[in-house]
Amino acid sequence: MSNDEGRQAVAETGGSVSRRAMLGAVGGSVAALSGCLTGGDGADSITVSVYGGAYGNVFEETVAGAYEEETGTTVNVQKAWSNRVSQLQSASQGDDGPPYDVIGLSGFNYLTARNEALLTPVRYDNIPNAEKIWPFFREYRTDEYGVPGEGGVLGIVYREGDPHATTWSEFMEVDAPAGMNGGYWKNPLLIAALLTDETAGVGEIYDPEMHDAMFSTLEDLAENVTTWYRGGADVWSALGGGTIDYGAFYYASGLAGIDNRPDKNYGMVLPEMSPGYFTNFCVTNTDRRDEAERFLDFMLRTEVQTEWHNSGYYVPANREVAGSYADRVQGAYPESNEGMESFFVLGDSERLSAYQSELSDRFTEITTA
Amino acid sequence: MTAAVRLREALSATRERAGLLVLPVVAFELVVFAGALLYLLRMSLYEPTTDGLYRPGTWTLDNYVGLLTDSYLQGRMLFSLQLGAVVTAIALVLGFVYAYAAWRADGRLRALLLGAVLVELLISVVIKVYAWVPLLAPRGTFNNLLVGAGLAREPVALLGNDVGVVIGLVYSMLPYVVLPVYAVLTTLDWSLVEAARDLGASRPRSVVEIVVPQAVPGLLAGGITAFAWSTVAFAAPSILGSPSQRTVASEASRFVNTTFDWPRAAALGVEAVVVVVLAAGVAVALVRRFGPADATEGLL
Amino acid sequence: MTRRRLGTALYRTGVWLLLGFIVLPVVVVIGTSVSATPDVVFPPEQLSLRYYRAFFFAEAKWQTAFVNSVIVAAGTALLATALGTAGAYGTRTLPEGRLREAITTLLVLPLPTPVIVLALALSVYFARLGIRGSYPALVLGHTLVTVPFVYVVVRAVLARVDWRAHEAARDLGATRWQAFREIVFPQIRAGVVAAAFVAAILSLHEFLIALFLSDFGTQTLPVLEWTALRNFVDPMISVVSTLLIIAALALAVPVVVVLGMDRLARLL
User: Fold this and answer.
1) Would you say the ipTM is above 0.90?
2) How many contacts (CB atoms, under 8 Å) link B and C?
């Protein structure tokens, strides 16, 4: 169940302490007492770094919590958004071990961590469940470092009754205030590339000669965008406060957020081709390699992936979940490898690395105009 | 009393050995800050690379050249300075009025006024800036009031622009102006103001001509702090503004965490420090030149 | 006569408006903490104490972070106040000129440094020294960014001290420490206390340096708060802030009872 429901359950049962909270309290006080040491000792605890917000809370409750219950090993879930690789890199300059044992990364974060030698290759002998991963995920950016765990795509969240876009091209046509993520260039540029006709799909983003055309489309898109939001909180805030009538937002987070706001009449639509991401869960240069790999294998178990999927609607990396998707996304999420390939519109970070600085600069300038 | 006479008195009063008291803090700064600053300086001289964070073992001035010729980034620097200046000016005026009121108030009111400021400080920056969102939103508290009272035909845009960010920053900086000004005012002798009033000065004039000059050290302390912090602010522009309100801090953050171009981030950081210190230095010099006699004694 | 009354009325209204300005977001925060829903709306649509229950019974990590925050804030307040006050006092006794200006500039330099690059640099520096992730690292990092404020505030109040009484005391045989304690300190006390309080508060709410310098066991409240802020505004932030306010008021009540409101105000 989602974190809000979890909290509600706690509140409604008059504050009975959840098992996870107990473990957390014990672990927390021990950790607090040993606050002068960095990390923990032995394999009775590991630290996992994942995205923050509701994603992190769901991960903590379902994946980490279940692992703790089964093995007794404490899983410290560190949740953050943008500083994780910088933190990992700067902390690795000393002699103490890295601050995390496992870290979930995608896109440029993954590429940079890999290039800066912050990751240790995964030994697949220790992760038999990896066989169940969709081949598409394993082949896309190679799986030498880290195992794919989950993924997601962008959808459009809207307020029922008000005009809104149902496809990306309608973003430029519908006459209503819209929101789009202004914090990171990739998704908006992928949308712009999709809408630009210089070449098929998102080819424009890889060809510097077509960048001008792509940015021209982005400028057209930008005319309708009243709010370049920074994150999920902004979207719900803007929708509720009336600043936007609809916005581009992650499908999974959007559905979960709508579930948590039954009093509002929000809806979510999934355009046919949508920018997406998927996360590789990687092992850092830690001593606790065995334990980390054990955790990864656990994370890929079909039951765990199913529970994780049901709690947050993420697209599971394990293909065995395909038969039993949650009702909310049944029919929307692919059930074949070819389906996965066409579902996810990805920007290959490796191919983009030469231009990413320029793309980021130009995107930022357009949003600032 | 001239500066020279006071200085001589100060020296003979304290005996020069008290000067040694600066050693601990200077040592602290040299060890901790200088260490960090040197790392930053060195980082700004590395060549950037698309395969990682920087290219070790290299030396280049390209980052600074690129920075100084980048019209977008220099535009951000200019915006940051303007934001800092506007916020500081407003905060100084409002802060002085508030501190003055607290100083002149009787027991209960004084405790209330100071207590409110202290309570504001107790709240995390993040949430107290975020609290302005429901207040300033198009369907938020202020707009509902304005439209409901007929003062506006449709909601006024108070978020996602300069207005919201300035409100949020002034709010955040106000306690840091009020506290030093108040502290300085408590050392003041009210009888001087009474004397001026007995001699016929109007009430506002007596305050402006007697109290304000005496309060300048506190205003400087609060002003320097407010200017430095709001120029490189991150939270309020991020939460209350649109991308048009991005400051150098937002850009530096982008270079560190999004484009992974650490040399560029470091160069921008160094530029921010230099520019703000220069700007503050100019302001202080102006105060020294045109302000009351010993105005900057509390700083330089 | 009327113009004066108008002026007074304007002044009074202005002050009350300012008070309202300061207090309004506080009310919003407290309102959010008792809201039944996670969104930050004001006024809250439904009321509930579920998040307070969550803090005290279920959210151990918030409790640990709270303790860490208090430890680091106390350490920072002590160190920053000691260094800043001593530094301000010592700098004042130096002759006016280049050295004095240089020291002041050095001490003020951390203020305009964008915190992201400062946090990054400190992280690498402390990692190389092997202290990253520890309480001392956090205290040093926070002291770095709070000492400037202590310094400028104490310099400001020192500028207003009447040194003649101090000189007289010294001539009459008082030691430096006695003269400082009896003559100078009472005059600067308001400033020092205010600066110490602010240093503690700044540390309590500082996010970036804490993020880069802390480990899972030493992470402070803001580290949890900021990560909670991206996807939905975790009401736990409001709960923690409100609890802090309640704690401060709770501490203040016995003081007010013992001293009485007027004496307290005179002390402030």
Assistant:
1) no
2) 344
